[in-house]
Input
Amino acid sequence: MPRPIEALIHTEALAHNLRRARAAAPDAKVWAVVKANAYGHGIEHAYAGLQGADGFALLDLAEAERVRALGWRGPILLLEGCFDARDLELCSRLNLWHTVHHDQQIDMLAAHKTHIGHHVFLKMNSGMNRLGFTPAAYYSAWLRLSGLTQVENISLMTHLSDADGARGIAHQVATFEEATRDLPGDRSLANSAATLRFAPNEPLVRGDWVRPGIMVYGSSPDFPEKSIVDWGLQPTMTLRSQLIGLQQLKAGDSVGYGSSFTAELPMRIGIVACGYADGYPRVVQPGTPVLVNGARSRIVGRVSMDMITVDLTPAPEAGLGSEITLWGQGPHGTTLPIDEIAQSAGTTGYELMCALAQRVPTRAV
Output
């Protein structure tokens, strides 16, 4: 029998969350962002739940080839564009749209010999200060692209740095609108946070395309201000295992490396087949929640490479083989949002999804 840990990818939850993005941005088209192997879910596992999107957005050519191999014939956007002039050949062959965010990418297009016109997304640095042309340089970049016979269509794009925080997005939206006021082309501004928080009431934020990422995968972009329940999202990845050992503690007994937990009263604990080598964060705080047969409980002691110890007090019936939900959808309709585990580890749901170890069997359900 294999080790009793697995990750489940919930197809209908992915489709549900995608519908939530579409409902939040009426009249806009929706990119399903599947970079980082669909945020750790696996592109092949996630594809069935995301086919309702208008396009797929990702980073590298290998992922684009995988999406095409699955049968997708619609738009695919390379969010960081081409890294080498030879990449443009594959863009032509696979009909990939690609981002342009610096002058060298325009130079590559100008030198590219093709009979197929390219669709590019011209990116503005409106304040994020990662990729993109400054507002002052944006029009000149657009003019250069518009003069190339290799370019058939130019869309306009920026990325919002504070859509999930108190500063908000008004300053960036205003910068983008001012610099693109007289330019034709589709517009794309909104990530997950902007899609949920601003797009329903602000047409300028909706633009023509929204780019939901983390919300599609059942994590709240502005947790803990709002949870997935507040946003009407569903967990799309469940990490679950079973109890492989039981211990009865006396008052004063300690647990795990460093004896970081000491029982104040007699209690029963269970040992779970999961550890940091599976992608569960070693740095979670004491008391991090888990579900034992669907009952909410807590971790006791340190997370080790292959095992976690949990308090069985809320689930007195639990025994060897009992189901443990580390995050996601539990039995009997219970849920444990990944955001709660991420908060305990001082990180975000993004990182936990992407850090799922290769040794964990994964399947779509």
Q: What stands out?
A: Residues 237-364 form a domain with the Lyase, Ornithine Decarboxylase; Chain A, domain 1 fold (CATH 2.40.37.10). The chain has 13 helices and 19 strands.
